[in-house]
Design brief:
With 416 residues, this protein is of the alpha/beta class. Helix content is 42%, strand content 15%. The strands form three sheets. A seven-stranded mixed beta sheet has the order 3-9-8-7-6-4-5, with helices on both faces.
């Protein structure tokens, strides 16, 4: 029996309160300066494995200098909608981003979430239909009620089931002009990736099918110039639009949309509600993003990506040696299923006591009873950090699993 919205809110609040009291959520760092590797919490100083800055650029001196220079030139904020006037940093950043993604039009947004809210209602027109992956990011799913109010059917699909997508798209195409598939490039909780090659083949095979991919978690560490899995390993398909993040692997702030036609980019800028009515990216974030883009366009990126891959390979090797059941993924995100929320919290608490901060991943971020430990590997971590983490992680999970049998493995799907 499905829970009411109020019951879901109450359950979420209870979990957040529990995590906060256990020192696992809503914590405040006390460091006067951050280095990206360690943070000081009330429980002590810990190695930070909850950081999505995969390349470690957020503390790079060049980004700091660029942010400072932008403040000196344009102030801490330029408080005017882009609809009226903008600072030239916007044009410079969008030009560099276009170079990174292969020359396609790019629209910078205050965040990836606001990029979704601007783009999807424009890309998806009246008379279209929507299919979305059960695990597509929550910030994409937030837009679905707005589409539904326009009479656009929005149908959920089991995770990464392109075989079902093909059948459903063909059925919907009998009554709708186009069918949009919404998914992630890298799924944020488990770090697994979309079958992009198969998706491109399906787009070629089904004329009515289009796709919108949130590739936020792939930026920086994946693809040529760090452009992610979609744009770094495949050229932008004429029927695909991509959302990127400038605040994870990019190390700055904001989001970006990559579309195939300049006319579409102009329409999103002119009519995208969250772009028109929200404040723009602040000059220091624009300045830092420009500095980051120049690094991604340089040969230095190869060195950073190789450094990250070395840490990922070490983690996976040690996980096998310690018989740690980790969701297999080519991304820097690692997820270890534990079970119920209380089990996850106890396991994460042991890691915290041992000097490692990781993410509690429980309902509603993942299905009930399928909670786990989520951690991110970054260039900030030393190889010794990874080597010390894995045995503690394996023992913490083993202790919880020894208490009661694990649930049978089944396809991972968020409760809708």
């Amino acid at each position: 029996m499905s829970s009411t919205f109020q019951e879901r809110l109450d359950a979420t609040q209870a979990i957040v309160d529990f995590a906060r009291n256990a020192g696992l959520g809503q914590q405040v760092v006390s460091d006067p300066h951050l280095d990206g590797r360690e943070i000081s919490l009330p429980h002590g100083r810990v190695v930070h494995f909850g950081n999505c800055s995969y390349l470690g650029l957020e503390v790079d001196a060049r980004l700091k200098v660029a942010a400072h220079d932008a403040v000196e030139r344009y102030g801490a904020v330029f408080s005017s909608s882009r609809t009226y006037v903008r600072v030239p940093l916007y044009d410079e950043l969008e030009s560099l981003l276009s170079m990174i993604v292969g020359g396609f039009p790019v629209v910078v947004a205050p965040s990836t979430s606001l990029a979704h809210q601007s783009a999807l209602p424009i890309l998806i027109e009246d008379g279209d239909a929507v299919c979305f992956d059960a695990l597509v990011h929550a910030t994409v799913q937030v837009v679905l009620p707005q589409l539904a109010q326009r009479g656009i059917p929005c149908e959920i699909l089991p995770h990464n089931r392109l075989d079902l997508l093909e059948r459903k798209a063909k059925r919907l195409a009998e009554k709708h002009r186009r069918v949009f598939y919404l998914c992630d490039g890298v799924f944020s909780m488990h770090g697994d990736v979309a079958p992009l090659g198969a998706l491109y083949e399906l787009l070629d095979r089904v004329p009515a099918l289009f796709a919108y991919v949130d590739d936020a978690h792939a930026v920086g560490w994946a693809g040529r110039h760090g452009s992610g899995l979609v744009l770094g390993e495949h050229r932008l398909h004429p029927k695909v639009s991509v959302a990127l993040s400038l605040s994870k692997g990019f190390g700055a702030g904001g989001g970006a949309l990559v579309v195939h036609e300049p006319s579409v980019a102009r329409r999103i800028v002119a009519c995208g509600g969250s772009l028109v009515f929200s404040g723009p990216l602040a000059p220091p974030l624009l300045g830092a993003a420009i500095a980051s883009a120049r690094i991604l366009l340089s040969t230095e990126l190869d060195e950073r990506q190789a450094r990250l891959r070395e840490r990922m390979a070490l983690f996976d090797r040690l996980a096998r040696e310690h018989e740690l059941d980790v969701v297999p993924t080519p991304s820097p995100i690692r997820f270890v299923e534990v079970g119920e929320s209380e089990d996850v919290s106890r396991a994460c608490g042991r890691l915290l006591a041992a000097g490692f901060f990781v993410n509690v991943a429980v309902f509603p971020a993942v299905p009930r009873g399928r909670g786990g430990i989520r951690l991110m590997l970054t260039c900030h971590h030393g190889l010794d950090d990874v080597a010390r983490l894995v045995p503690v992680l394996a023992e913490s999970v083993r202790r919880e699993r020894s208490v009661k049998p694990r649930r049978p493995q089944e396809p991972v799907e968020r409760t809708s």
